[in-house]
Structure formats: C-alpha cells, structure tokens
Amino acid sequence: MADETAKSTAIRVAKSLEAHSLIAVVFGGLIYILAVTGTLSVFNHEFQRWEQPNVPEMASISPEAAQSAALAVFESEATPTTHLYINFPQEDLPRTVITTDTQAFFAAPDGSVAAAEAFPWTQFLLDLHYYLHLPQILGLTVVGALGAMLIGLSFSGLLAHPRIFRDAFTFRRSAGRLTKVDLHNRLSVWTIPFHFSNALTGSILGLASVLAITIAAVGFDNDTAALFAPVFGGEPAPVEGEAHVANIAGPLRFMAEKFPDLEVTYFILHDPGTLGQHSSVIAEHPDRLIFGEYYNFTDAGAYEGNVGISDGTVGQQITGAVYNVHFGNWGGLPVKLAYLIFGIALCVIIASGLSIYFAKREAKGRPAPRLAATWSGLVWGTPTMLAVTLLVALFGGSSELLVGLFWVGLAITLGASSFYSSEAVSRYGRLAMAVVLAIVLATYFASFGLYAISNAGLGVSAALSALTVCMAYAYYRGSSHDLMNDAPTASTELGLEE
Amino acid sequence: MLLWQIAGTCLSIAGIYALYLSWRRKQRSWSLVLAGWGTLLAAIWAWGKTSGVDKGPAIGIVVTVLIAMVAVLIVALRTPTKERREPRGRNSVVEIQRSVWHEGLSTTFSVIAIVFAGLMAAISACTALFMGGRALGMEHTANLTATMIAFPLVWAALAVFIGYTQSIGARAGMLTGLMTVSIAIIAVALQGA
Prior knowledge:
Number of helices of chain A: 15
Oligomer: heterodimer
Structural class of chain B: mainly alpha
Strand order of the largest sheet of chain A: 4-3-2-1-5-6-7-8
C-alpha cells in the first residue's frame, strides 16, 4: 500500500515536472525578459529623472502656475489636442509635466514652460515590458499570456513539490547543483505571494482587452467602453463648438481645500477649448493600494463627484488596485526596494529553472550544450543589451533605434552563445555587462557633469556603479561558484529534494 | 501606528521562527506548524492596522516574505558545507521515455493546444462565467473583476493540464467539453436576457 502511494506520488511529480518543463522551455525566455524589464520598470520614475537630470524639480506647484503652463502648452498646439494633462510632482518624480496628444513639456515652479520631456530609454523599457515592442493590443495580449503561463509554472511547480512545507528552510550551501535546486525551490516557495500576484495582475492588465472584446461582442453590442464604464466612469460624447479653455486652477484649489489628505497626481482636461470640455483630477489615497480616484468637474469648475474607485463597489476597488500591485508603486521607496529584491529573485528562479532542465537532459543522456549556452546567452545578454541601449540613448539614439538594437543585438548574442560553453557565456556576459555599464556611467558623467550627482541623477548612478562593481567582481571570481548557469555534468535532485 | 508596525514585524519573525522550529524537528509538529501559520496571520492582521484595508495587509505580506528570505539565508549560512557523494546517474523521478521525434511532435502539439485551444477554452469559459453571473443578477463590477481574475487562472490551469496529461483524447475531451458547456451557458444566459 505504501509502495503504491509512493509510486503514485512519483508519477504525479514526474507528470507535473513534465508540465513545468514544457511551459518553461517554450515560454521561459520571454518570461525572463519580462521579469528583467519588469524589475527595472518599478524604477521607471527614477530612470526618467536620471535621463533628464537638468530640468526643473519641485515638491509642489501652485494651481495658478500649473494652469499658466498648461495654457501656454495648449496654445502652442498646431492641431487642437483632445486631452490636456498635468502630471503633478510626486515623491519619486518631483516634476510638473504638461502633456497633450502629441507633446510634453516640463513646467517651472513659476508657471513658465521649460524643456521638452524626453526619456527614450525609459519609454523603450516600458514598451518592452508592456508590449514586447509588438503592436499595442497584440503586444498586451502576448505579455498577458506570458503572465498566465507564469501562473501555470507556479501551479505545476507546486504540484511537483510534494515536500513543499517540510523543506521550507532546506538550503545546501556550496553543493553545486543541489544549491541551485534549493535556490530555485526556496525562492519560488517563499516569494510566491509576490510572483503569483505579479503574474496575475500582469496577465489581468494584458488580457483585459481580448476578454473585453469577446464579452462585449456577446453581451454589449461590441461596445467595450460600456463594459468598463461602471468601473472607471464613462467619457461623455464630444460637443462641437469652440469655447474658452476651462478653469484649471479652480478644481485644483477645490481639491486642496476639500481633500487636503489626498495627493493630486494628475489633472485631465477632456476636449479642451470645446463646448463639451470637462475635467478630472486623479488623486492618490496614501493609505490604499488603488492607483487613485477620479474627481470630476464641469467646465466651470463645479465638482460633480468621484467615480468610486476609492469608495465604490468592491469590483471597482479591486480593479483600481491591479496596476499598483503589479508595479509596486504603492508604498514609496521601501516597497520599491522590496519589489527589486523579489524581482531579482524571480529572475534567478527562471534562470536557475532552465539551468536545472538542461542538467536533467544531460543526466538522461540527452545533453543540449548549445541550447544551454544559448540560454546563458539570454540570461546575460538581456541585461547587457539593455545596458547597450542605455548607452546609445545617452548618445541621442531614437526609440526606434533602441528597439532594433535590442532585438538584433540579443539575436546575435544568442546565436554567438551557442558556439561557446555555458560557463564561458556566463562569465563573459558578466564582463560585457560590467564594461558597458562602466562606459554608460562615464558617458553620463561626461554629458551631465554635476547633475550626475544631483538628486535626480545620483540614485540610479550609484545603483549602476554598484552593479558594475558586482559584475566585474563576479567576472574575476570566475565561474567556479556560478549559481545560475554552470553547465551541469550530471543530474542529481532535479526539481526534487534529497 | 508605530506600535502596530513593531507588533506586526515581531509577529512575522515569531511566525517564521515557529515554522523553522517545526522544520528542524525530525517528526512533524502540528502544534508548531499551526502556531507558525497562526502567528503569521496575526502579523498580517497587525499590519492591517497600520494603513488602509488593503495596503496594510499588503505591507505585512511584503515584510513577512522578506523575513522568510532572510531566515532561509541565515539557515543557508549556518549549514555546514560537506563533501557530497558523487551524483547518482538516475533520480527518483519516474521517467517517461520517448523518442526525439515523438517528443518534438508532442511538444509542438502541446504548445498549439496551450496557446490556441487553451486560449479559446479559457475565453469561452470566462465569457460564460460573466454572462452567467450577469443572468443571475450579479453586480456588474464584481462580475467583471471576478471574470478578469478568473481568465488567466483558467488558462494557466488548462496549460498545466495539457502539459500534465499525455492523452490527446483527455486533452481534447477537456477542452471541447469546457467550450461546449461554456457555449451552452452563454446561450442560456442570452435567452434569459
């Protein structure tokens, strides 16, 4: 009886591992790219500041100054914009930005318009994470699908791990591949609240469009806006005819007086300069996970009420929290740093998981050294190519150039990696990353001088410097203690515990 | 608030430590396991007092995960390294032998099944879930949110099922069965609308 139970468990584990391996091998590469870019995207505000350290910064701006800058940008538009946005200073992005359909400018504290906003690398990074640089709906859906597959990896990993709680603290140090297996399993189990919630929220964000299209086709006469209107509020139909631009300072003053505890992050003027114009203020609720609440105003500045994301239905409140839970921007720098640690853990889980897979193949007498080396190429090539694009962006490279450079460069890296051993790829990948990052830092300091050590530049510069040192140290330390990519020679406890 | 933060942190540490003590014992101690998880729940509750209804517990989970990672790191550093035996040639997993061709073909079919059939089945099921909820008078935003959450979970579960089962018949049965039931629910919901 005991033998039968053990055999049944072994078969279940084997089948679960098959499912785990199948999903990981097919989708692991793209999931890894999303994990790396997602980890970096948590700091997208910091990267924006770093890319443009020499623009006006402020803790707050007066409603009148914000209105003055917004009107100046609006009047400079060749074709009327359908929306006029003001991004207000936040703790991690202390800048005021006026955005229209086609352009964006910084505002100075006195209400004058300063430089144009330009953060090509951060935008490139976000586009890579949101869409994998594919057309928007398709890209969102593919990224969402990869999120679903990451959930599948969590499911199958848990099924394949019958001693999940009994081994909760097992970690065999300096034991080669056993250490790698322990690293994979321990990180996977203990960080599951992070990577499961992140995969779920990411896939909700990505797959919402495709599901909404289907539901709208079946039950809402193809009107997807009608499906989401009860959650986020509907947009009234535009009304033709010109009018004076609506009062901007009024709603902002109202928010400061009526809701002093809230942090106003955005002002949106819909259809500015038309008879149908109206405005919304988005304000963060500091004690909530929601991204914010919409407070709506008429063109005359009369308050019409809030949408209900903060105090409406449970569905509204949960939906309103999805974005922040995914991107970790709900608790200031401490939570961002926690997301950084969890994000790096996810990257290690994915990288070590495929490494274990290749060890397993070898143990079964079906080694795939080229594939293993190619995987190492992806693991180290992805961050290295991100660093290369960062360097090119500092030299003024356009977004299109960065996109082409990243994908072509990564493809070449993968192709070239297959001609070397996994250890060599891993080792020289670190060296390449250290060298490129050092050049990035030198270029940055040469370009921006003292701004590089200003509040806007220092944080990211220091982090990149630390990463450069770590990569250089890892290179000199050699591959003998490699946790992520040392090519296995035989398999032991692959995916199971000893 | 500071007191609740301190209490939450202490409870998180205590909960993880209780689970560690349970892990260290040769025989499973249910009292320690329950004490560990119970204390962790109390930690999340305490963190819930530090902020809003959703943000407080979220911070508690983040803190608890970080403490657990530190605990594993401490255990790793305290574990003496020792000479390991030569790796075994085989492991205890029951292996499923296949030819390279069969494996390649099987993988291709599996990927097609996951990406296309799995997607279709998940969309059908979740559309049926939404339409069924709507027909039963469920509040719109709750219905939509539940459906949005269910979609990736259903697709992920189907992907695991497809990878888990070797039988094409079982896969086809599951996917077509799910789609058929979903279409039936949608049809009934539309009739009632």
